[in-house]
Amino acid sequence: MCHTVYGARHLNGEDDLYESLRLELRRGSLGLAVLARLRVERYGYTLRQALADDGLDMEESTLYPLLRRLEAKGLLVSEWREEEKRKKRFYVLSPAGEDMLRRLVQEWRTINASLERIMETGD
């Protein structure tokens, strides 16, 4: 019985570690995904849907603070507009955001190529 409990705790510990590392990996990718999707103007809900359609589900509690941070850094511009009798905040890349996206995509491609080589060799 002790062995089973230890095994369950061990698996939970591994699951916790996996979840922590998975979230860290995702966190680093979400900003890039949001910038890429905002090459076209969108409001929050349609942005969430576009990301979900691409396999990146994101909670509102993650998305909106990220949008505010990116806007505060000058990478996005936004404006409130009424659409379908509701006020919605629309976001799009600023010129600085377009430049940053270009630079980050280049870096992502370099990292991705390196990781692919590492995964293939297994060394």
Task: Summarize the topology.
Elements lengths: L1 H36 L4 E2 H10 L6 H13 L3 E8 L2 E8 L1 H27 L2
Antiparallel strand pairs: 1-3, 2-3
Descriptive notes:
The chain is an alpha+beta fold. It has a single domain, classed as Orthogonal Bundle (Arc Repressor Mutant, subunit A), CATH 1.10.10. Helices cover 70% and strands 15% of the residues. The protein has 4 helices and 3 strands; from the N terminus they run H-E-H-H-E-E-H. A hairpin with a 2-residue loop joins strand 2 and strand 3.
Comma- or semicolon-separated keywords:
globular, alpha+beta, 123 residues, Arc Repressor Mutant, subunit A, 3 strands, disordered N terminus
CATH-derived architecture: Orthogonal Bundle
Number of helices: 4
Sketch the topology as an H/E string, one letter per element: HEHHEEH
Low-confidence stretches: 1-9
Per CATH, the class reads Mainly Alpha
CATH homologous superfamily (4th level) name: Winged helix-like DNA-binding domain superfamily/Winged helix DNA-binding domain
Q: Identify the strand order in the major beta sheet.
A: 1-3-2
Number of strands: 3
- The CA-CA distance between the termini, in Å, is 39 Å
- CATH names the topology as Arc Repressor Mutant, subunit A
User: Tell me about the biggest sheet?
Assistant: 3 strands, antiparallel
Helical percentage: 55-70%
Question: What structural class results from the helix and strand content?
Answer: alpha+beta
Q: Into how many domains do the coordinates divide?
A: 1
